[in-house]
Design brief:
Elements lengths: L3 H6 L1 H8 L8 H37 L5 H33 L19 E6 L12 H6 L4 E2 L1 H6 L6 E2 L1 H20 L4 E2 L5 E3 H7 L10 E2 L6 E3 L4 H5 L6 E3 L5 E10 L18 E11 L4 H19 L3 E5 L11 E9 L4 E10 L3 H6 L2 E4 L4 E4 L1 E9 H11 L25
Parallel strand pairs: 4-9, 8-14
Antiparallel strand pairs: 1-11, 2-3, 5-7, 6-7, 9-10, 10-16, 11-12, 12-13, 13-16, 14-15
Helix pairs in contact: 3-4, 7-12
């Protein structure tokens, strides 16, 4: 959520900046509502003052033995007018808040201009895509060997965009989770946290998924407003909701493994084959809560932590700086890490690392106590995938495939896989 004062005082400048995100801010509507709010605020204060003056006059009139009925009538009339005015003021304030909750974050100055992912700026390339002297297979066909990766049975049990893994495939999936967590905890100094997989609407509002993206979520029917988490970012970041941290506790760095659940409402027809776009998948998430002046360095550090996983797995990848048109709702800046998938002959996203500045923190009232002022101030939040497990599995299957159909296990994962050399 943007700073309300900034939005009020710099509406047209912000509208211009948000065009970078292909978002049209209704300046006239905001200005009209703001003028109405100011007028109602003044009117409300005037009614309060007039009522207070009459209330004080009642005491004096009573002490002087005067008839107080006319004053009582005036106080009652002003009370009714005040109540009506406060009701209208609250309605305008609520409308302004509803609009504000739907306004995306302002892009950082280093975000490139552009309309879509084709305009993203390539930052670096790591590794060389493997060359094969045989006809390569995609991960679906590779996983079908030995019935280790099964989409048909998953569809029978649940529906499309789910998978069943068996044997060494399930073991490799579990190994990736443990390897990623160990790396981030032991080498990058993150604290592991375990969180609920169900969250309430306040948590989703805090990180920016609600109200704008409700159709992408799985809501649990019932009296309580529970949702399945779309990413561990939601519960982990909301640990800081309504908290004030001492300066010496910062930065706070947390890592978490969870399943993630997404309806993929806007992706019909996209990536229907295999594990690239699933309703249920696993991720290891990285979250940092930092002082504002440190957040962009924190973003670079977090990006390098996610890259480390791919480097250790020896999987080729590239990093892109997302353009304004491809930037997420809550993010001020995002780097995507894209891993090489031989069967698609292209790079595909495997992690998004973002700085949200104080956008999420303002929604959550996540703060730290600034020792220079002694007052609470908003934190900056930074997060990214470190990494998406399913897509990492896909990348291993396709990049490490052999001519005889076997899958070589990356050296760094062998200790997690009984020192086997091959998956199948």
């Amino acid at each position: 959520m943007l700073d309300p004062k900034l939005l009020r005082n710099n509406t047209e400048a912000i509208a211009e900046q948000l065009k970078t995100k292909n978002f049209d801010l209704d300046v006239n509507l905001l200005s009209t509502l703001e003028d109405k709010r100011k007028a109602l605020q003044v009117e409300t204060e005037n009614f309060k003052n007039e009522r207070n003056i009459r209330s004080k006059a009642i005491g004096k009139a009573k002490a002087a033995g005067e008839d107080i009925q006319p004053l009582l009538k005036e106080v009652s009339d002003f009370g009714e007018k005040l109540e009506s005015c406060e009701t209208r003021l609250h309605a305008v304030q609520q409308e302004l808040e509803d609009i504000s909750m739907g306004i995306p974050n302002i892009p950082h100055e280093s975000v490139p201009l552009g309309q879509s992912e084709s305009d993203n700026q390539e930052v670096k390339i790591w590794g060389i895509p493997p060359q094969f002297d045989f006809v390569i297979k995609d991960h679906v066909d590779l996983g079908a060997a030995g019935n280790l990766l099964d989409f048909e049975t998953a569809a029978k049990i649940t529906g499309s965009r789910f998978a069943i893994m068996r044997g060494n495939m399930a073991g490799l999936h579990r190994a990736l989770i443990q390897f990623m967590l160990n790396t981030h905890i032991q080498e990058h100094d993150y604290q592991e946290v375990y969180v609920p997989y169900l969250v309430n609407s306040e948590s989703l509002k805090g990180t920016g998924q609600l109200p704008k993206f409700e159709e992408d979520l799985f809501k649990i029917p019932g009296e309580r407003d529970f949702y399945l988490i779309p990413t561990a970012e939601v519960p982990v970041t909301n640990i800081a909701r309504n908290e004030i941290y001492p300066a010496e506790d910062l930065p706070i760095k947390m890592t978490c493994h969870t399943p993630c659940f997404r309806s993929e409402a806007g992706s019909y027809g996209k990536d229907t084959r295999g594990m690239i776009r699933q309703h249920q998948f696993e991720k290891v998430e990285l979250v940092q809560l930092v002082k504002p002046e440190n957040s962009y360095q924190a973003l670079e550090n977090l990006l390098s932590h996610a890259e480390t996983i791919l480097q250790k797995l020896e999987l080729p990848y590239r990093v892109v700086n997302l353009c304004g048109g491809d930037l997420g709702f809550s993010a001020a800046k995002t780097y995507d890490i894209e891993v090489w998938l031989p069967a698609q002959n292209t790079y595909r996203e495997i992690s998004s690392c973002s700085n949200f500045e104080d956008f999420q923190a303002r929604r959550m009232q996540a703060r730290w106590r600034n020792p220079e002022t002694g007052k609470p101030a908003l934190l900056h939040t930074v997060n990214g995938s470190g990494l998406a497990i399913g897509r990492t599995l896909v990348a291993i299957l396709e990049n490490y495939q052999q001519a005889d159909g076997r899958i070589k296990i990356p050296e760094v994962l062998k200790p997690y896989m009984n020192n086997q050399d091959f998956l199948v």
